[in-house]
Amino acid sequence: MDERSVYGLSFSLITLGEVYEGIYDQSDSEARMTDLRTLLKGHTILRLSDPIVEVFARTRSTLRRNGQLIPDMDLLIASTAIVHDLTLMTRNQRHFSHITDLKLYSAEDDA
User: What residues does each domain of the chain span?
Assistant: First the structure.
């Protein structure tokens, strides 16, 4: 378990931005924002750093050479997980499966 967070979960700042975008597209965005803030209490928000941006650039270069580029936001999320030695939980393994250094957990495994 990751000691930085109560339940071993951390959130990338990039993921948080994507969640905010989804919330602001909803008619009940204020209630959803309150729910999100409650969910985030006790969890670590992982900010971007030089090591994360370095992993992003190196990995993006490799993916480009292999013709496997993925969206930059997804790549920043993956780079954050790699730098912090975390397992990325996702329902979209298609993009992330091209990143060899990334530990993945498919949320669909629980469905």
Answer: 1-46, 48-111
Structure tokens at 64: 């480009």
pLDDT in tens, 74-106: 999 999 999 999 999 988 888 899 999 999 998
The 3-state DSSP class for residue 84 equals: coil
* Multiple choice CATH, 48-111, 3.60.10.10, 3.50.50.60, 3.40.50.1010, 3.90.550.10: 3.40.50.1010
pTM: 0.85
Q: Provide the residue type at 18 as one letter.
A: E
Query: Which amino acid is residue 100, in one-letter code?
Result: T
Burial of 104 (0-12, 13-18, 19+ CB in 10 A): middle
